[in-house]
Design brief:
Order of helices and strands: HHEHEEHHHHHHEHHHEEHHHHEEHHH
Shape: globular
Oligomer: single chain
Strand order of the largest sheet: 1-4
Helix content: 55-70%
Number of helices: 19
Number of strands: 8
Structural class: mainly alpha
């Protein structure tokens, strides 16, 4: 007796997308696709649409300079020796011959004068780092001023913020590696800031330096942090950032045919990739040209680091001038408690610095809480149409510039023949006054631009043609705007301020609004209430004026 058994099998997936590949390259591509599914993945993503506007190129500059930093950094690690061991220099640079120095400094001098192309690569690496941080800052300001951080991009804003902060600190670690007099002074500055931290400052200092300053471990540890730890984290954040850009689709400026549900632009392949490739080589070429012309960080001119010397031109890279300015203009206050001294002149700026940065990171969540808006936003705001947000951004930039002056107060004093104390007092007053003045001026400026836009929509643009009416009045002829411009000037939404709930419920029972509710309502009125935005023209107003009733 025999029993028949049956098994169910699924249909096999075709191993080939073509029955007869045309050549060996097509056959190899077909073989790869059959195992990795590249074709379907590429088909879904390589035709993704990206809008075309110059401001979107700022993010690409960040990406390209990061790639340049990685490429040049790999080259430099082949020749740099991250060691504090003492050696006597006997290379080709005569002024340093016979001078004792660390292996880190000696190897950096050798890279500059002995390794073919080494100095140019060093310059490209340093300039690319400066441009990277600058591009990150400008890119984030573009995102901030246009409201591109709103739902669903709050997490991507945080990723960008972390990339900016990590880039700043990685730059600090990078220019500290050569162990020259300039970078050693910067490390000494950092050590003083660490020691000002109550309770744990001395422990952090001993752990970081491996002993009393300058110790023998600081350069090897900074090297590991600079080339491995921070770049690894940044690479992961960058990949996550780009994935979210793809997933959420790109933002775009308002215009005819552009909605919250579509993207108008060019496909990733081949148009956008061709432009991006050309732009990469353009960025690389400009940075290489700058590096070949303008010397940055000439460590041979400073000499090796010695704790008993300080370079008169000891200045951090521009992106760290903010923190140095805080400390330079802070009064030297100290408090002694229970036999311990708290250096407020360093500790207070050390606390203000991260607080300012954290305020930037959490701003999208604060604005989202104030508005209560849960919708997705893919259309960008014109900065003038968000006066309070634009004024806040301008105030932050003005604060940064004021503190940058404080961080270089000695250079401003010597170059402009000013009193060092006068500059310091100016920065102390400007720390509080300049952001407030900038906020007021920027907000009024935005409101003025809104009024101008409303006037253009209702009355058209001025043509310069003067016409005399039958009763003798002279008037200027206005031309109505094209429909495209009318759409751009009126497409923005105007959020209404949040209202407090009624003081009594439907049963007449009194109810009291909580502190958070009242705070949210006050902030909402400040952001979007009367005096914070000009009502945009309605279709009825435009029709009434253009139909001849009340306007010539």
């Amino acid at each position: 007796m025999s029993s028949a058994s049956s098994t169910k099998t699924g249909a096999a997936k075709p191993s080939s997308t073509r029955a007869n590949p045309a050549n060996k390259w097509e056959s190899a591509a077909d073989w790869t696709d059959g195992r990795l599914g590249i074709y379907s993945l590429a088909k879904a993503n390589l035709r993704k649409i990206f809008p075309d506007h110059w401001s979107f190129m700022l993010g690409e500059i960040c990406l390209y300079t990061f790639v340049i930093i990685i490429l040049t950094g790999v080259y430099l690690t082949l020749f740099f020796k991250p060691s504090m061991a003492e050696v006597v220099y006997n290379g080709s640079y005569v002024p340093l011959k016979g001078i004792g120095m660390s292996e880190a400094y000696a190897s950096t001098v050798d890279i500059s004068f002995e390794i073919r192309g080494g100095l140019l690569i060093r310059q490209i690496h340093h300039w690319a780092a400066l441009v990277f941080v600058a591009a990150m800052l400008v890119h984030m300001m573009r995102v901030f001023f246009t409201g591109a951080f709103r739902k669903p991009r709050e997490i991507n804003w945080v990723f960008g913020f972390l990339l900016l902060v990590l880039g700043m600190f990685d730059g600090f670690f990078g220019y500290s590696l050569p162990d020259d007099l300039l970078s050693g002074t910067g490390i000494r500055f950092m050590e003083g800031a660490i020691l000002a931290v109550p309770l744990v400052g001395t422990y952090i200092q001993m752990f970081l330096f491996g002993g009393e300053f300058p110790g023998h471990d600081i350069v090897p540890r900074f090297f590991t942090i600079h080339v491995l730890l921070i770049p690894g984290i940044m690479l992961g954040l960058l990949v996550a950032h780009l994935i979210l850009v793809f997933y959420h689709k790109h933002t775009q400026w308002a215009g005819p045919g552009k909605t919250e549900k579509n993207v108008v632009g060019m496909p990733l392949m081949p148009v956008y990739m061709a432009k991006a490739g050309g732009f990469f080589f353009l960025v690389f070429g400009i940075i290489a040209a700058i590096s070949a012309i303008a010397t940055i960080n000439p460590i041979w001119a400073y000499g090796p680091y010695r704790p008993d010397q300080v370079s008169t031109d000891a200045q951090p890279d521009w992106y760290m001038g903010f923190s140095e300015g805080l400390i330079r203009v802070m009064p030297g206050w100290e408090i002694s408690l229970w036999g311990h001294t708290l250096n407020l002149g360093v500790f207070i700026p050390l606390m203000i610095f991260p607080l300012v940065l954290v305020a930037i990171a959490v701003y999208p969540f604060i604005e989202g809480w104030i508005t209560g808006d849960k919708r997705e936003h893919h259309i960008l705001d014109r900065p003038r149409n968000a006066p309070v947000r634009t004024a806040l951004g301008a105030a932050w930039i003005s604060l940064y510039l004021v503190l940058l002056i404080g961080g270089g107060n000695d250079l401003f004093a010597t170059h402009f023949h000013l009193s060092l104390n006068s500059i310091t007092y100016f920065v102390r007053v400007g720390f509080f006054a300049v952001p407030v003045i900038t906020f007021i001026i920027t907000k009024r400026w935005c409101l003025g631009l809104q009024r101008r836009d409303k006037e253009k929509v209702l009355h058209g643009r001025e043509t310069g043609v003067i016409k005399r009416l039958p009763h003798g009045e002279f008037v200027e002829v206005h031309a109505q705007l094209p429909s495209k411009d009318l759409h751009t000037l009126t497409a923005h939404e105007q959020i209404q301020p949040v209202e407090l709930p009624a003081q009594t419920d439907e049963n007449g029972v009194a109810r009291k609004a909580g502190a958070l509710t009242r705070t949210r309502a006050k902030l909402s009125r400040g952001f979007y209430g009367e005096g914070s935005q000009i009502p945009k023209p309605t279709a009825e107003e435009h029709h009434e004026i253009t139909s001849g009733h009340g306007h010539h």
